[in-house]
Amino acid sequence: MNEQLKPAVPETPSEELAEILAAQKLEAEWWKDAPVMETEADIERALGSGRAERIIDGAFSRVSAKVPEHFRVLDKETKKLLDEFVAEWGAELQRRNINPEGLFLVISSLARTKAYQEELRASGYPGAEESTHTKLGAFDVAVEWFEKNRPEVAAVVEDVAKKFFDEGRINLIRERTIGALHIARNPHTSR
Fold first, then answer.
1. Whole-structure pTM value
2. Cα angle vertex 10, ends 155, 152, to 5°?
3. CATH for 9-185, among 3.30.1380.10, 3.40.50.620, 3.30.70.1060, 3.30.420.40?
C-alpha cells in the first residue's frame, strides 16, 4: 500500500457514504464516455496530447503535499474551472472585507489512476469505483481547517461552490468526514 495512505482515515458513516455515492451518479453520467486513467502512462499521454495540464501552486491555492507529483494533473477545462474557482474565492473574500493575506485553498485531490482510486477506497476514503478523478475531471478542496479555525472563510468557500453548482457548472459533494468538498466539472456546460 502507498505510504502516503498509512495515516488513519476516519470511517465514513454508511449514511454519508450512501449520499456521496448517490450524488456521484450525476457526474458519472456526465463523464461516462471519457477515458479512465488506468495507469500513470495514461496520465502522461493526456499531458502529451495537450488534453491535460499540470497543476501548480498559485497565489491563493496550494496542492496538498499528500498529492503525489504525478497526480497533480487535470484536464484543461477542469484546470480552467479550478483557476476560476480560486479567483472567485479570492474576490469574494475581498468583497466581504476578509483580508486574504496568508490565506489559500488546499487542493487535496486531483488526478487518480484506477489502481490509486481502489487503494484509496480500500484505505477507507469515501468514493466511487469509477471516480471522476480517474477521468481528470474533478478536484477536492480541503475545508476542515477553515471550518474549525476561520468559519467566515469556510463560508466563502461553500458559497462559491454553491454558486458554481447553482449555475450548473459543477457537481458538488460535501465529504464531511474527511473535511473536503469534491468538485467535478460539468463537461456539458461552457463558460
1. 0.90
2. 10
3. 3.30.1380.10
